[in-house]
Amino acid sequence: WMNADCYNTKLPYVCTKSVFNDTIHQPAGCTVKRQYAPGDEIFSPGYPQAPGVTACDYLLLEPNQGKKAEVTIDFFETNSCCDTLTIYDGHFGSNILKTMTGSYTSPVTIRASSNAMRLYWNATSGAHVRGFRAKMGSV
């Protein structure tokens, strides 16, 4: 076995490099932060470790009522059987914009029809997966 620079060394065998190197670690349990603004990062509990069994609510609010809130989920890994992230339109979340489960390999952006949206994380297995990482924006 030998470690070598995968990009600059020409070798007659396969060389791999991990693409997941997240240095941000979140505490277990739901965050105490109740409201998120554009530019804020949002994480599932324990990210990037398994989130455990948790249910958390996140309010995303753009202060300018003339703009629309949006969220970009740039990492998402859950157990399809049991763990979901539901994204609701508005403060009180009566209209579901998207429910995510399983794994997504590309970033997903969801836009609200107003300056507010709500995320609801529901993990009933929360094992052997890393959860989600997202960022709030507005347009």
TrEMBL record:
Keywords: Disulfide bond. It comes from the Eukaryota. The keyword Disulfide bond applies. Pfam families: CUB (PF00431). SUPFAM superfamilies: Spermadhesin, CUB domain. Residues 30-139 form the CUB domain. The keyword S-adenosyl-L-methionine does not apply. This is CUB domain-containing protein. The lineage of its organism: Eukaryota, Metazoa, Ecdysozoa, Nematoda, Chromadorea.
